[in-house]
From TrEMBL:
Domain of life: Bacteria
Alphabetic keyword roster: Cell cycle, Cell division, Membrane, Transmembrane, Transmembrane helix
UniProt entry tagged with the keyword Cell membrane: no
One BP term from GO: cell division
Organism (species): Pseudidiomarina aquimaris
Protein's name according to its UniProt entry: Cell division protein FtsN
Annotated spans, Disordered: 1-25, 59-80
Residue ranges of domain SPOR in the record: 104-181
PANTHER family the UniProt entry points to: CELL DIVISION PROTEIN DEDD-RELATED, CELL DIVISION PROTEIN FTSN
Transmembrane segments: 29-52
Composition skew (Basic residues), residue ranges: 1-22
Molecular function (Gene Ontology), one example: peptidoglycan binding
PROSITE patterns the record matches: SPOR (PS51724)
Length: 183
């Protein structure tokens, strides 16, 4: 059967189709389900009382005391639990772990360029914004003095350059790039 091209069944009007009839719909209460629900609730309550300790109105059971004339059975006391001693704790306390970490090879120094401008005044503005973050930058003229680059560094590691770049990003200075340059 093709469900996509199937027609919808005709919709009924809320009034039942007759114009003059405004009769309230009858509601049949399923009494069997209501009685079953009440029986289940009662069974649950009785079961919970049974689990909790039975009937609270019942008399307590009477215990009979053993007359002193009968000999009491002798019970030996339970020996104390021996204290466990772990050997590995004592062995590991005095051991030292030696790790061979190879030295990292330092590559060329890293420079971070944060801007390149045609006007020196724009480069000076960016240099001042960087200085407000506690970092020192330099302005280098390039291309015969037609461009002015704002550069930070040199940094020995890329990690140090990344730390300063994140500081500048938090201050709203974006677009800084880290390069392997030598000046």
């Amino acid at each position: 059967m093709d469900y996509a091209n199937r027609k919808r069944p005709p919709q009924r009007k809320p009034g039942g189709g007759k114009k003059g009839s405004k009769k309230a719909p009858e509601r049949n209460v399923p009494w069997g389900i209501v009685v079953l629900a009440i029986v289940l609730v009662l069974a649950l309550v009785i079961g919970l009382r049974f689990i909790a300790g039975g009937n609270p109105n019942a008399p307590e059971p009477v215990t009979q005391e053993v007359p002193p004339s009968q000999p009491q059975p002798t019970v030996e006391p339970i020996p104390e639990k021996p204290e466990e001693r772990w050997q590995y704790i004592e062995e590991l306390e005095n051991l030292e772990v030696e790790v061979d970490v190879p030295e990292r090879e330092l590559g060329p120094p890293k420079l971070m360029q944060c801007g390149s401008f045609r006007k020196r005044a724009d480069a000076e503005r960016l240099k001042a914004a960087i200085a407000m973050q506690g970092l020192e930058s330099e302005i280098y003229p390039s291309n015969g003095g037609t461009w002015y680059r704002v550069v930070l560094g040199p940094y020995e590691t890329k990690r140090a350059a990344e730390a300063d770049r994140h500081t500048l990003q938090r201050a709203g200075i974006h677009g800084c790039q880290i390069w392997n340059w030598n000046l």
